[in-house]
Write a structure and sequence with these properties.
- The structure holds two protein chains of two kinds.
- By secondary structure, chain A is an all-beta fold.
- Chain A has no helices and eleven strands.
- In chain A, strands 2, 4, 5, 6, 9, 10 and 11 form a seven-stranded mixed sheet that branches. A four-stranded antiparallel sheet of chain A has the order 1-3-8-7, with no helix packed on it.
- Chain A starts with a strand and ends with a strand.
- By secondary structure, chain B is mostly beta strands.
- In chain B, the strands form two sheets. In chain B, strands 1, 3, 4, 7, 8 and 9 form a six-stranded mixed sheet that branches. Chain B has a three-stranded antiparallel sheet with strand order 2-6-5, with no helix packed on it.
- In chain B, strand 5 and strand 6 form a beta hairpin.
- The N and C termini of chain B lie far apart (28 Å).
- Classes of the chains: A mainly beta, B mainly beta.
- At the A-B interface, strand 5 and strand 10 of A face strand 3, strand 7 and strand 8 of B.
Chain lengths: 119, 108
Amino acid sequence: VQLAESGGGLVQPGGSLRLSCAASGFRFSSYWMTWVRQAPGKGLEWVANIKHDGSEKYYVDSVKGRFTISRDNAKNLLYLQMNSLRVEDTAVYFCANLGHSGGWYPDSWGQGTLVTVSS
Amino acid sequence: QSVLTQPPSASGTPGQRVTISCSGSSSNIGSNTVNWYRQLPGTAPKLLIYSNNQRPSGVPDRFSGSKSGTSASLAISGLQSEDEADYYCAAWDDSRGVFGGGTKLTVL
């Protein structure tokens, strides 16, 4: 299993950014996927989940209406469109696939991409 | 303030057994399974335990998990220097994922 995030960078407050996560080594179209973030020096925070076919999506309250999770199963790509970015969105963003063996658990993780929101 | 509560720090000497606790509520640990992750500085978290007490392939049996009511624990036996890391518990809560604040384990 390999997951590789990209698209991070420096953006001003109120700006937008789209993160991508390229998946390989597993049947991407059969797995729920998730985004988890980690602010500098802080703990892990779940951001969003998406069902294998994209028909169900869940978000943490702090990003609802601003972030959109999506996927392209034909290209094995997961996305996170981030709009109206705030300073408090500054974090390393990880993508992960959710395990198949019952319950919710991010299984394999990418290396993360850093998003910095600052003026 | 994290939804799941973990002690901020723990310590032990090589060879010792240490446990890390994770306290939640009826909407998360009380009704869903618990997972544990280890994170070394500058790296991605790694899954250690899923579904309360299941180890992914490749995780040594020195690591074990348990759950009772609204609390869970991670036990590490035969502590090694490379176990020095941050440890996080996680669970599903109604319609959101939740993590503990993390426990920094120091091997003395």
